[in-house]
Amino acid sequence: MPGGGREQQFSRCCRAPGDSPQGVTRAIQQIERHYGEVLFHRSTRQMRISCFSEGLLEQVRPVLERFEDLWRTPAPVNQDSLSGTVRITAPHSLGTRAVLPALDRVPGRHPAITLDVRLSDRISNTVDDGIDVGIRVGFMRDSRFVARKAAEMRLPVVAAPRLIEKVGAPGDIDALAGLPNALALDTNTGRPRPWHFKAGQQWTPVAPTLIADNADMEIGAALAGVAFAQLADYMAAPYIASGELVQVLQDEEPPAWGLYVYRPQRGPTPGRVRAVFDELLAAVGSLPALR
What we know:
Blueprint: H1 6-15, H2 21-35, E1 40-42, E2 47-49, H3 51-70, E3 83-90, H4 95-109, E4 112-119, E5 133-137, E6 145-153, E7 157-159, H5 161-167, E8 182-185, E9 192-193, E10 195-196, E11 202-203, E12 210-212, H6 215-223, E13 229-230, H7 233-242, E14 246-248, E15 257-264, H8 271-285
Parallel strand pairs: 3-4, 3-5, 8-12
Antiparallel strand pairs: 1-2, 5-15, 6-15, 7-13, 7-14, 8-9, 10-11
């Protein structure tokens, strides 16, 4: 092959940013030692590619072209063509209230996305469990996750009007001890979950009327006039507005907690995961709330 074609490309390669003639020369020498063949015929005036190099180049060219394709900037994702499975986790109390509304919108916009929902009140190892998007109450101080605050959750103490008419409303936190109460169990520890009040005060029913490990059982007991309960406002607010539940001890209410939508921080986020993340963020932000 006459000088000036691939030899000129070799010279330009040596002058490319990040490369040096010495580095390229060492690489050529390593390849020549590996194959026991000469890649270039060199003279004082020119350098010619060898016949062996010509054949080797034809063998590796398809591989090199595919390698370059891997590093090309991908085309913008077509939101209409998102597909694949997205695994979601959330507490049971947010299943029908937040997850289901989001799932109602996702299929209409992205019909090729499969939604795998795992409701649980336990704090699972979402990275090991392959969770893509989740909802959690309270701030997440974990660098493995990207979390966005979607809403605030208040914790009112409520009861049905007929129960208040029967036993009276508590005038202070201590008065709760003489009233029928619902006790929630923490499914992570199996222990009673305390009620929270302002200034960091906590109170735990010692003789509860109902013990449950499910928030929907608590609100059911409250609506039935069985017990007082401390509930998330996204559960209680519609019933307070309708008069089916009455809020008590309002002056003792604790600061609001955060409701967060999160996803593991494990590299680039697939378009399908981002789409579901955004829908859950909107759904949690639209939950009923006390104003």
